[in-house]
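Dear H.,

Thanks for agreeing to be a second pair of eyes. The structure we're designing against is below in token form, covering all 333 positions.
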């Protein structure tokens, strides 16, 4: 009888421990049909002999297909620990996309804020996401014109970051990558930061990032949700704008600055949006005498929600004189 009671007590205790932790499987499947004329290797030059085809991870997709796991454990006393692992997948054939790991980090948080280590979103991207009109889709006119606050990726490898608690809608985040971990021959470190105000319908974000011995990038934007209508605007100064090809290979660095303004209208489960970017400066990052053409870029998006997790979308992206468009279906699970 005593052994049975002990066994029941152990089971009850283990059940209580298990109840304090959880792991969630989640992901996105996004496929569409469209045409991509933009050639990142040559500014303003269209791709030759491009045909309309299926796309799963292109600039005409709403989001990149992926699968991930996230977990959290309640350590007690208001303290929590967790992790996030996420991998990009090719929804056209089901394969994992080599070299496109998305998240791989561990964190701890409490009343003091949150500390995180590993591959994660940059603080500057998190600041941009607060005001990006469409939620930073693949066809974001901001991201495709000025990068993610000048960077080719929205994530940093080997990043240490700290995020403050929210005080009256204000919060801040700072990230750091050491010289030994950053990719520039181990001679440069990187600092990344944001300052955010998000309270009710108003969101404002300031983003900053800098690689040592290089010029800094920054962006400031705001978005206001009136209910049926949303308005967003920003200023971006990407003084080290990284240009990469479709596989993420570096093609060069330029300076690109400009404004964006856009609006979104909702009608029940339908939304229509227009976001426009206009260059004020476009030149070689380290030789101001080498200037490129200034562009007015724009994206038009229409979405129809089939449910809370699934929607149809259509987009047209005018990017550096090229025409890119697509229609697709996205399902979140």
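And this is the sequence the design step returned. I haven't edited it by hand at all.
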């Amino acid at each position: 009888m005593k052994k049975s009671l002990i066994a029941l007590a152990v089971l009850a205790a283990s059940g209580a421990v298990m109840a304090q932790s959880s792991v969630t499987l989640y992901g996105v499947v996004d496929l569409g049909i469209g045409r991509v004329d933009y050639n990142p290797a040559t500014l303003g030059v269209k791709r030759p002999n491009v045909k309309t085809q299926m796309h799963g991870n292109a600039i005409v997709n709403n989001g990149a297909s992926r699968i991930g796991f996230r977990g959290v454990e309640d350590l007690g006393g208001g303290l929590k620990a967790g992790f996030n692992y996420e991998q990009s997948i090719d929804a056209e054939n089901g394969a994992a996309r080599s070299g496109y790991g998305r998240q791989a980090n561990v964190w701890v948080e409490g009343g003091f804020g949150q500390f995180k280590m590993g591959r994660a979103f940059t603080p500057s991207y998190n600041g941009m996401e607060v005001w990006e009109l469409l939620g930073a889709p693949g066809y974001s006119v901001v991201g495709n014109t000025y990068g993610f606050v000048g960077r080719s990726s929205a994530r940093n490898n080997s990043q240490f970051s700290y995020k403050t608690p929210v005080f009256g809608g204000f919060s801040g985040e700072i990230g750091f990558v050491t010289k030994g971990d950053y990719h520039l021959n181990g001679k440069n470190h990187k600092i990344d930061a944001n300052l955010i105000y998000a309270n009710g319908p108003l969101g404002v974000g300031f983003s900053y990032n800098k690689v040592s011995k290089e010029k800094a990038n920054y962006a400031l934007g705001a978005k206001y949700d009136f209910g049926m209508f949303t308005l967003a605007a920003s200023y971006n100064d990407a003084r080290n704008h990284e240009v990469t090809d479709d596989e993420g290979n570096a093609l060069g660095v330029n300076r690109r600055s400009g404004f964006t303004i856009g609006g979104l209208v909702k009608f029940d489960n339908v939304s229509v949006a227009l976001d426009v970017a206009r260059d004020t400066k476009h030149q070689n990052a380290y030789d101001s005498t080498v200037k490129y053409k200034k562009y007015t870029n724009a994206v038009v998006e229409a979405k129809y929600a089939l449910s809370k997790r699934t929607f149809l979308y259509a987009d047209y992206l005018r990017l550096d004189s090229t025409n890119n468009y697509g229609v697709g279906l996205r399902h979140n699970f």
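Two observations from my side: Residues 1-19 have pLDDT under 50 and may be disordered. Helices lie at 2-19, 123-129, 141-146.

Warmly,
E.
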